[in-house]
Task: inverse folding
């Protein structure tokens, strides 16, 4: 088993020489050379140059199936044609209004039809923000102040 892993690492290092060089540069600026610990693996993570469909392509032109898919925000894949075209159309109109807008209303209508129990909808930027609202809502409804948290969660 150890010998097999050594072979795998040898092949990986041979195929990712540009990634190794760029990772060494990244270590000068980022903790452990990455933006988040989950992105690190030994001996070093590959450095992504582009993506398309279900694949990530590194700076050495290796293709990897992306099982992470942008924390599942890219469930339709990378650079999906219709989403790309619609995104370009929206960017021409602006991409961060910070105000109520018709697209949010249209999306909320679709969500309400798909999830009838969703009486009200709030859009947030992060999982932390969503959890914060869920905790506040639970405390308000139950009147309890204590929240159980799973170790490591």
Result:
């Amino acid at each position: 088993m150890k010998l097999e892993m050594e072979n795998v690492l040898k092949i990986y290092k041979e195929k990712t020489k540009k990634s190794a060089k760029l990772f060494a540069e990244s270590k000068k600026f980022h903790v452990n050379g990455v933006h988040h610990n989950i992105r690190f693996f030994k001996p070093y993570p590959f450095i992504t140059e582009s993506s398309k469909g279900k694949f990530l392509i590194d700076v050495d032109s290796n293709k990897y199936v992306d099982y992470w898919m942008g924390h599942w925000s890219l469930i339709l894949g990378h650079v999906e044609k219709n989403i790309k075209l619609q995104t370009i159309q929206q960017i021409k109109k602006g991409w961060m209004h910070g105000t109520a807008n018709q697209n949010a209303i249209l999306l909320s209508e679709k969500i309400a039809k798909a999830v009838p129990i969703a009486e009200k909808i709030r859009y947030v930027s992060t999982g932390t923000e969503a959890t914060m609202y869920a905790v506040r809502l639970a405390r308000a409804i139950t009147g309890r102040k204590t929240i159980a948290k799973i170790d490591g969660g």
In short: The domain at 2-72 is CATH 3.90.1150.10 (Aspartate Aminotransferase, domain 1). The CA atoms of residues 4 and 10 lie 10 Å apart. The mean pLDDT is 91.
